[in-house]
PTS mannose/fructose/sorbose transporter subunit IIAB
Amino acid sequence: MKKFAIASHEKMALGIQSTLELFVGKDLDITYMAAYVEGLPDIDAQIATFFDNIHEEDQVVIFTDMFGGSVNQKITLAAKDRTNVFIVAGFNLPVMIEIIYGAEIYTDKLLRDLLENGRQAMQLVETDFSKVSGESTENGMNESKPDTPTETNVLRSAPVQDVGGATIKIPTTLRVDERLIHGQIAMVWSRELHLQGILVANDEAADNETQQMALKMAVPAGIPMLVRSLEDAATILKDPRAQHRRLLVLVRTVADALALAERVPNMSYINVGNVGKSVEGEKEILTQFVMLTPNELASLKKLVAIYPETALQNLPSDKKEMAQSFVS
């Protein structure tokens, strides 16, 4: 079983809990330890309790706030001779998510590689988009003068074949998320879906170069991304090559998802993830993350008629709530 712990001086570990749960959910076995905080057990007692619940078959990663600090030292001593316990000193949110989702079985080499990936998430953010507009991004795309949609990097790959030589169809996921590309997409869904491309289908963003540059900032390295109008996105998705790429298509509204669903027959999963918080007026609350206006509810009903397996799900670790139950 995978177990994790986050340990810090004072309340840093406790403070990161709600943020981390926003990305990884609440079902993982994560212990939060705060040292030298009045009203909490002594840090030695917290560490002892944690290690008492570690079994030989467990794989354990402990994040400490500072290499060589007292918390790090105490945990290092407690972990002595335990080959199934790994300690990471000096953590940040991308590093933790990278490691939590990085593997089922940890090794020293794998963790070093994952740490390097996490370090690359620390970047100086360029706020003058004119300096980067039109330049090739880290994932090898240049969209200042885009080619025709069917010739983009999102579709440039050889079809995947099984051992018998037959071409395999790979599912496309369509997600409704009013934030489009953000941390959960970059750090969680991209790993869950093993993405080979992201397609943002939004008329407004397709005409706004500044918004496109902002969206690109969140795209994981190595994953091509396109921002296109709904009409152009439908053209891309109907290209036969799209059936052999693991694509995530992002739209802002259920109505936009419906517009694509009416035109595109080969999507495997439609996910209503996070929508409605930025909309004013009367809304029906379906889940903590989905609040729909009457018009959006009507669109959801039509969407379910086309794709009955449409589900409400914010994180991969969350239970799927079938959309059918909200519109029947």
